[in-house]
Write a structure and sequence with these properties.
Belongs to the ATP phosphoribosyltransferase family. Long subfamily. The chain is flat, with a radius of gyration of 24 Å. Helices cover about 25% and strands about 30% of the residues. By secondary structure, it is an alpha/beta fold. It has a six-stranded mixed beta sheet with strand order 2-3-1-4-11-5. It has a five-stranded mixed beta sheet with strand order 8-7-9-6-10. The chain is built from eight helices and 15 strands. It has three domains: about 120 residues, Periplasmic binding protein-like II (D-Maltodextrin-Binding Protein, domain 2, 3-Layer(aba) Sandwich), CATH 3.40.190.10; about 90 residues, Periplasmic binding protein-like II (D-Maltodextrin-Binding Protein, domain 2), CATH 3.40.190.10; about 70 residues, Alpha-Beta Plaits (2-Layer Sandwich), CATH 3.30.70.120. It binds adenosine-5'-triphosphate, 1-O-pyrophosphono-5-O-phosphono-alpha-D-ribofuranose (PRP) and magnesium ion. 1-O-pyrophosphono-5-O-phosphono-alpha-D-ribofuranose (PRP) binds next to strand 9 and helix 5. Adenosine-5'-triphosphate binds next to helix 3.
């Protein structure tokens, strides 16, 4: 079997969650701190620790077969590279921001002005779509400081909680895109290696489904069973087992994290008792 070469970020925001998802797929890698490359002992996988910004080019050249990377970086530097899975972590936006006390109505604000950013292509595309002519100034870090030191009138950078903007007296005025970590694939992946990727992707999907679901156990009086079962989805349908105590049943089901609290409230209102909620490690449908 051929070996799948995967790039992950060497250090930074994506590193820990990328290693965690590989681990949760049951794959053991030696992630010694100073190594730039590591092999899995129980799956045909090699992991390369690289700078996030360099990864699109490595994918394009086929130096690596797949990568865990922010969708924002693909949009900026790898429009020709597809991704096959959204991974549900490192969620953020790429936004334009201006000093807090500026009056902002629309994109015409930026006409003839200067924007500092690490995302020049993304910004330029947005400016073109709005037919605004602006000077885009590339800087690689600490972008939010630019307006305060007179380097630019506005900035375009990643926004998550908004606290970096707040601390620098800036306000978000346009959201250019929303992003999360994705599994990107080299256009040069071989047919043989694609088979290994399919296996890995199957595992990743099982892990993600598990992360997005909870296993719920509860006790229900038999006379209320029907209405309780009506709010429970389950994988196929809920499991119902008799309790030792006459007139009661134990109900087991799987609930999506998104609907979780609504369903729990409804279950309680309908007479469910002793509700237990457990994490799901993996889910294979
Ligand atoms: N504050 C944040 N909240 C959520 N996700 C973020 C945040 N900042 C960055 N990200 C996501 O994590 C990715 C990596 O960000 P990070 O700042 O660690 O690396 P970088 O400096 O852009 O890249 P490099 O590895 O080239 O140094 C970004 O491309 C983005 O997708
Ligand atoms: O909206 P917030 O939650 O404040 O997050 C946004 C900040 O996070 C990122 O920087 P990071 O902390 O990764 O530092 P960096 O500039 O060194 O990459 C990004 O470049 C923003 O500055
Ligand atoms: Mg950063």
């Amino acid at each position: 079997m051929s070996t799948l070469k995967m790039a992950i970020q060497k250090s930074g925001r994506l590193n820990q969650d990328s290693l965690k998802i590989i681990k949760d797929c049951g794959i053991s890698i030696d992630n010694g701190k100073d190594q730039l490359k590591a092999s899995a002992s129980n799956f045909p996988l090699e992991v390369f620790y690289l700078r996030n910004g360099d990864i699109p080019q490595y994918l394009r050249d086929g130096v690596v077969d797949v990568a865990i990377i922010g969708e924002n970086v693909l949009i900026e530097k790898g429009q020709d590279i597809d991704f096959v899975e959204r991974l549900g972590f490192s969620k953020c936006k790429v936004s334009l921001a201006v000093p807090k006390n500026e009056i902002y109505t629309d994109m015409s604000y930026f006409e003839g002005k200067k924007i500092a950013t690490s995302y020049p292509n993304t910004v330029q595309k947005y400016l073109n779509a709005a037919s605004v002519s602006t000077n885009v100034h590339l800087i690689n870090g600490s972008v939010e400081i630019a307006p305060n030191i007179g380097l630019a009138d506005g900035i375009c950078d990643i926004v998550s909680s908004g606290s970096t903007l707040f601390k620098n007296n800036l306000k978000e005025v346009e959201v250019l895109l929303k992003s999360e970590a994705v599994l990107a694939v080299s256009p040069r992946i071989s047919v043989e290696t694609q088979k290994v990727l399919d296996k890995l992707q199957f595992r990743i999907q099982s892990v993600l489904k598990g992360r997005n679901s909870k296993y719920v156990l509860l006790n229900a009086p038999n006379d209320k069973l029907e209405s309780i079962l009506a709010v429970l989805p389950g994988m196929r349908s809920p499991t119902v087992l008799p309790l030792a105590q006459e007139g009661w049943s134990s109900v087991h089901s799987v609930i999506s994290k998104n609907q979780f609290w609504e369903i729990i409230d409804e279950l309680k209102a309908k007479g469910a008792e002793g509700i237990l909620v457990c994490p799901i490690e993996k889910m294979v449908l």
